[in-house]
Specification:
The complex is a heterotrimer. Chain A is an alpha/beta fold. Chain A contains 8 helices and 18 strands. Chain B is α/β, with parallel strands linked by helices. Chain B has one domain: 3-Layer(aba) Sandwich (Rossmann fold). The chains are: A alpha/beta, B alpha/beta, C alpha+beta.
Chain lengths: ~325, ~260, ~375
């Protein structure tokens, strides 16, 4: 009999586990502990033995597994049916999944099946004094935050943004493995995956780049400029510059970002040795995440960044490149 | 062959700086902000128009919104939709995604038979991304999200490309199906002056809850499982988070953060 | 009196704004550099219906009218004022043919102009003086079934991008009554293009010279009657040219306000955005006021034209006020920018140059004031 009050969906595609599932597990364990609630990690798919063993080391009280050949490829209706049956049988209070391509799709269908509320892409989770799930949800492009809860339906569901919560520490495996029914037929698989295309489309122009690494006067000389190109390379991004490097010939005119250059809308902007004067910053106003690296803690760019690092770029970029490379192996 | 495009009018982001929060009612004051067609829904409409050019049929635009969004529907008609339906009723106010999807699915059921339902992955304001899948669930048909290409296969099916982490997947699916599109899907066409005149001759019908067969209680505020406990505007736009410590520590934390955000 | 725009007009504004922002913005650097109109956009503009906005449907246009035309030109001008400068002269050409041409002429030329196969020209200005229309020297003598045209026309917008020219020349006595108008095609024997001017502003609207050396114009291309030339020229200017130029000014004013407001909200001095400083606020208030007044004056002319109400004084007022206001506000916007305002990377200096060119184009401010005075002096006669 399944005892867990909080179930966390262990998203996986072709047996590769998504980090967001682990992050949610960490958060669930954190909010469950003070009130003695239990947390289950829920896995759906096929040929999952290795993955299941791995999951036990993350601290969940129970690992629920639905393993069936018809589940080997993700299909939202078949996965949702399996989860619906399990939830109706075991009545968890809360069901959490990642706000990913799979998670958003799957939990939306599941919530409709269960006629329950679903809080989307939350950036915070807590339990109220009545043990109801409160999800902090951004809207209007992040300009508004709302606390959402579903007081009268069960389970209370939420999806969470990747990268918000912390993964739990790995530990000695604990927890029971409990198989759950996967009563599905071929009719439940309503679409066929024909092929998977790997890899991002290379964005080669600054305006379309999702990641931009830009350098400023503080780079110092042309010989060191290659560090920016290396960082851009490991992040699949493009290299930009402020005016002084272009004037000095370290970068091309077309790479200049700012009032007199390009206006860009990357998802990630990393400004290296850039002071952050207005006529450059207007060029990156809409960047989703701004990272600033500068030796001068008073540099204006630190008032317009999401993540700031004070230090010498020559000491920061080389280890950073190595750390990023680790993730792609 | 009927294609239904679900469209939401959203407040124009160019005017979002005028957003105000009413501290007493915990609601957003958005009266003076003009509406536009949700950008991803516009791409869904463009996709529907392109499919109509290939396969023929009718494109109907459906929107659940208050009555002041008629200009937005007129714009959809000018773009090329054949007719449009506005679902408007005081009873629908305060709906969460479940209640919204339920009402829209009831309207779609009334428009049977249909082959394809298209909409955008998410809206600019609420941006839950949940409605397309929930509409499909209420209609008991398949759905695919993050669609960026649609091809017609033989045996009256579709070959659909959908974005996943680190790539795309091609999927075969038989209609009727709900497809929600992502930003790579297409670039919507311009509306010409002649289109504007043509659009004025097309119809906008108004349906209220009486026109729909609503059998379940999932309507409006009272039918919405999700409730708002609190609403607030965050202080600064940027997080201004300084990563401290020795360079090696800062670097590890930065790399980890970027990894979790999906950049490496 | 309803000051609200109709649903149709609001949608029109939205549609043209999207087109302008996507299609014209990338062309602007090249236009500023070469001074040339992006002729590759002409076909797209034809498809959009921009070129045929005052041409009736039966001749390939959409006939949306004069107020619609003003909104279209304003939205294009918000992005790049040189574009409506060029297009408004194109409309002058289509208006002259539509209002004064016979059925064959309309059927022959209007569809081509609406589609964007070529640009249109209204060639009135002689080297002897644009303000002195009645004194023009270009002549046309009837010989058999052809008019032989001799002379030069200068400061002609769209010259080097156009194959269809409406030209006014002297067929009879000295003075206003001796003028006639013709439709001249660029490939008629004896017609050729002269110099291209290098303007300091509104770069992107070609300004050039037309040269006629025993140019043969078929009799069938006489527009209206002999002797009607002055009337055609004046009505063309009053009904189409002045509102068109006023729309150019409106475009400049919109752009100027946007630049000034954005800069004022972003630029930080003494620890705060400069928009908190009262003198900056005064400048912004002045620019905003100029824009609102200019818009009301110009829209009114569009409305009057659509109602077929005579608007001599009103159109002179709209043109004269709007272009002066554009220059005045552009200067204020430069002040708001401080030293950045006179750097070429910032748009405001270009907008001032655009306004300076707009002021005398299509009728000097002085001539405009004469028209207004004429009207005012008739008001309280007993």
């Amino acid at each position: 009999m399944v005892e867990s009050n909080i179930w966390v969906f262990a998203e996986q595609r072709q047996c590769r586990l998504a980090d967001v599932g682990l992050e949610l597990l960490g958060k669930a364990l954190e909010i469950a502990a003070p009130i003695g609630w239990k947390v289950a990690f829920v896995l759906v798919g096929h040929s999952l033995n290795d993955l299941t063993e791995q999951l036990l080391t993350y601290g969940a009280h129970e690992v629920l597994v639905a393993d069936h050949p018809l589940l080997s490829s993700y299909c939202n209706q078949s996965y949702a049916k399996v989860l619906e049956n399990a939830i109706r049988k075991h009545h968890p209070e809360i069901f959490l999944s990642g706000a990913t391509a799979m998670g958003t799709d799957l939990s939306a269908r599941l919530a409709a099946k269960l006629r329950t509320g679903l809080s989307a892409h939350c950036i915070g989770l807590e339990l109220s004094s009545e043990r109801k799930l409160l999800a902090v949800v951004p809207g209007w492009g992040g300009n508004i935050l709302a606390k959402i809860y579903s007081p009268s339906t069960q389970p209370q569901m939420a999806t969470a943004m990747p990268g918000v919560f912390e993964k739990p520490q790995r530990r000695k495996p604990r927890g029971k493995i409990i198989p759950i029914d996967a009563n599905i037929t071929p009719e439940d698989v309503t679409y066929q995956v024909l092929e998977i295309e790997r890899g991002e489309i290379q964005e080669d122009t600054l305006e379309r780049a999702e990641v931009i690494v830009a350098g400023g006067w503080g780079i110092g000389n042309k010989e060191e400029w290659h560090w920016l190109e290396k960082v851009a390379s490991v992040l699949n991004g493009a290299v930009g510059a402020t005016r002084p490097p272009v004037d000095e010939g370290w970068a091309k005119e077309g790479q200049m970002i700012g009032q007199s250059g390009r206006t860009v809308h990357p998802k990630l902007y990393i400004g290296v040795a850039i002071s952050g004067q207005m006529h450059h910053m207007v060029g990156i106003r809409d960047a989703e995440t701004v990272v600033a690296i500068n030796q001068d803690p008073q540099a204006p760019i630190f008032e317009f960044c999401d993540l700031g690092l004070v230090g010498d770029y020559k000491e920061i970029l080389p280890p950073f490149i190595e750390a990023v490379k680790q993730y792609s192996t | 062959m009927r294609t239904i495009v679900c469209l939401k009018p959203v407040p124009d982001p160019k005017h979002w700086s005028q957003l105000r929060l009413d501290p007493k009612t915990k609601t957003l004051i958005r009266r003076e902000i003009p509406s536009i067609i949700n950008p991803l829904d516009k791409k869904a409409l463009e996709a529907a128009l392109q499919l109509r050019e290939r396969e023929g049929g009718e494109v109907v635009v459906l929107s659940m919104a208050p009555p002041n969004v008629i200009p937005v529907l007129r714009e959809a008609l000018a773009m090329g939709a054949d007719r449009s339906i506005l679902l408007s009723d005081v009873a629908f106010a305060g709906s969460d995604t479940l209640a919204t999807s339920y009402v829209i699915s009831a309207a779609i059921r009334k428009m049977s038979p249909y082959k394809l339902i298209l909409c955008g992955d998410q809206t600019l304001d609420g941006s839950t991304g949940q409605v397309s899948a929930q509409i499909a669930e209420f209609l008991d048909i398949p759905n695919l999200m993050h669609v960026n290409a649609v091809e017609t296969r033989q045996e009256s099916g579709y070959r659909v490309r959908s974005r996943i982490e680190h790539g795309n997947m091609w999927v075969g699916v038989k209609p009727p199906v709900v497809l929600s599109v992502s930003k790579e899907m297409n670039e919507p066409r311009y509306i010409t002056l002649m289109n504007i005149l043509e659009g004025e001759r097309k119809t906008i019908e108004n349906w209220s809850s009486r026109d729909l067969l609503l059998t379940e209680p999932w309507v409006g505020l009272s039918g919405s499982p999700s409730q708002m406990a609190e609403l607030f505007m965050p202080e600064a736009r940027r997080r201004l988070e300084m990563l401290g410590g020795a360079p090696s520590e800062m670097v590890k934390r930065l790399a980890d953060r970027l990894h979790r955000l999906g950049y490496c | 009196m309803d000051f609200k725009l109709s649903e149709r007009e609001e949608l029109l504004r939205k549609a043209v704004r999207e087109f302008a922002e996507k299609e014209i913005t990338p062309r602007m650097d090249a236009m500023e550099e070469t001074g040339d109109f992006p002729v590759d956009l002409l076909k797209k503009m034809g498809e959009m219906g921009i070129l045929g906005v005052i041409t009736p449907v039966e001749y390939g246009g959409n006939g949306l009218g004069n107020l619609a035309r003003i909104i279209v030109l304003e939205e294009l001008g918000r992005v790049c004022p040189a574009i409506p400068m060029a297009l408004q002269v194109h409309h002058m050409c289509t208006h002259a043919i539509n209002a004064f041409g016979n059925e064959e002429q309309k059927k022959k030329y209007l569809p081509r102009l609406a589609k964007g196969e070529t640009m249109g020209v209204a060639a009135i200005t002689d080297p002897s003086g644009g303000s002195d229309v009645a004194g023009m020297k270009a002549s046309a003598k009837l010989e058999g079934d052809k008019y032989i045209l001799n002379g030069r026309k200068c400061f002609i917008t769209n010259a080097h991008a156009s194959e269809i020219w409406v030209v006014v020349a002297r067929t009879g006595e000295a003075g206003a009554r001796g003028l006639s108008a013709f439709i001249v095609e660029g490939n008629f024997p004896g017609a050729k293009l002269g110099r291209k001017e290098n303007k300091v502003g509104l770069r992107g609207a070609i300004t050039g010279e037309l040269i006629f050396q025993n140019c043969e114009v078929p009799k069938a291309n006489l527009l209206g009657h002999e002797g009607e030339g002055m009337n055609i020229a004046i009505r063309n200017i009053v009904e189409t040219g002045r509102p068109g130029m006023a729309s150019v000014g409106l475009g400049i004013l919109n752009a100027v306000l946007e630049q000034a407001v954005k800069f004022a909200n972003e630029r930080v001095l003494y620890g705060k955005p400069i928009s908190t400083l009262q003198m900056i606020q005064a400048h912004i208030a002045d620019i905003y006021s100029d824009l609102e007044i200019a818009r009301l004056l110009t829209y009114r002319v569009g409305w009057m034209r659509d109602q077929n109400i005579r608007c001599e004084a009103e159109s002179a007022l709209a043109k004269q006020f709007t272009c002066e206001a554009a220059a005045r506000s552009a200067r204020k916007a430069i002040e708001v920018h401080g030293s950045y305002g006179i750097m070429k990377e910032y748009a405001v200096q270009r907008l001032l140059r655009d306004a300076l060119v707009a002021i005398p184009a299509g009728g000097t401010a002085e001539v405009g004031k004469l028209a207004i005075a004429r009207h005012a002096l008739n008001l309280f006669k007993s």
